[in-house]
Amino acid sequence: MTVDSQFNIKTIRKELGAFVLAAAGLGGVFHNFSDAVEMLTALIFILGLMALAAIFWLSRLKRVAVWNDGIEVSSLLWPFSKREYRFAEFDYVVIKNEGTDSERMVFVRNLRRDFTLRAAWYLNYQELKQAVRIPLKESVAADTSREIRSAFFWWTPLIFIGVLFLVLIGLAVPLAEYLDTGSVDAETIYLGIGIALGFAIFGGIALYPYKRLTIWQGRIDARRLIWPFVVKHYRMDDFDGCYEVTENKRRNDAGSGDEAHWLMSNGQLSLRICGWMYVNYEELKTATQTRVLNSMEAGAMEQLQAWRGKVYY
User: Fold this and answer.
1) Fewer CB within 10 Å, N side or C side of the chain?
2) d(Cα 154, Cα 13) in Å, to the nearest integer?
């Protein structure tokens, strides 16, 4: 017997509508432009960004068919890219936020998160969940005899490309005036540099938490993506223990966040490994497992305080 997924069209329309409203809101900022060409250019730019965001969101929607001993997955956006799996190929599945509208089922293969099914997107999510005969997460040992390297999600390079694109737009402001009038004044140069610098700072803040990790024989080497020339070395013996953390975006969103592994040293957060950042988070977490100090939930403020070295648990 095959169970085919059925999309919740109402929810999908609602979430897609958010992109339309965002585009309309941002586009309204440019309604008072006196020059029609400038206004049209700005609107095309905003609509382009929103279209890219919508495409990224749609790429996460999966058509699913579950049969007796396997599952077929295809992207809604790219329907010809079908993949077939046997249940035996998966290590386990992780059920997050069980019993809520935000429940999701994460499929882990070779200790890497392969794909996710969200309850809100499927009318027959419970039927799909019951048809999937893969064990739930258990204690799985990582292969510590080999070097383990962190692997980012496929969309991580898009952040670099987006930031670089926005910086170039800022630098293009004085160039556009020069091509239009044959001259450029100091005010326009400062404006372009300011825009480019602002986007560069914003990108640096967004990319600051990203680290490349290399784990081997009890040693961890970490280097930030925005400054790869500096490597910080850790040994597992240096850590007092770890916190198993659910990182929520808002304080009241209990249980709805992403899993994280906080490694502590001398009562301070020394290394943070986040599930939303690494596709092989489960492998990294298992390879750096140490004494569990506590399990907790952390809102944005608690995460900021931990980043500054303060953990009140």
Assistant:
1) N
2) 25
Q: What's the pLDDT score for residue 159?
A: 83
**pLDDT tens digits, 144-166:** 567 888 989 877 888 888 888 88
Model-level pTM? 0.65
Q: Measure Cα distances from 203 to 196, 207, 301 in Å.
A: 10, 6, 21
One-letter-per-residue 3-state SS of the chain: CCEECCECHHHHHHHHHHHHHHHHHHHHHHCCCCCHHHHHHHHHHHHHHHHHHHHHHHCCCEEEEECCCEEEEEECCCCCCEEEEEHHHCCEEEEECCCCCCCEEEEEECCEEEEEEEHHHECCHHHHHHHCCCCECCCCCCCCCCCEECCECCCHHHHHHHHHHHHHHHHHHHHHHHHHHCCCCHHHHHHHHHHHHHHHHHHHHHHCCCEEEEEECCEEEEEECCEEEEEEEEEHHHCCEEEEEEECCCCCCCCCCEEEEEEEECCEEEEEEECCCECCHHHHHHHCCCCEEEEEEECHHHHHHHHCCCCCC
What radius of gyration do the chain's Cα atoms show? 23
Residue 297 forms beta bridges with which residues?
246
- Please identify every stretch of the chain with a pLDDT value under 50, giving residue numbers as ranges: none
Question: What are the backbone dihedrals phi and psi of residue 124, each rounded to the nearest 5 degrees, phi first?
Answer: -110, 40
The Cβ of residue 307 has, within 10 Å, a number of other Cβ atoms equal to 13
Enumerate residues 6+ apart whose C-beta is below 8 A from 86. 69, 70
pLDDT tens track for 25-45: 665 555 555 555 556 666 666
To the nearest 10°, the Cα dihedral for 225, 213, 139, 298? -40
Of the CA atoms within 13 Å of residue 225, those in its CB half-sphere come to 18
Cα–Cα distance measured from residue 123 to residue 161, given in angstroms and rounded to the nearest whole number: 36
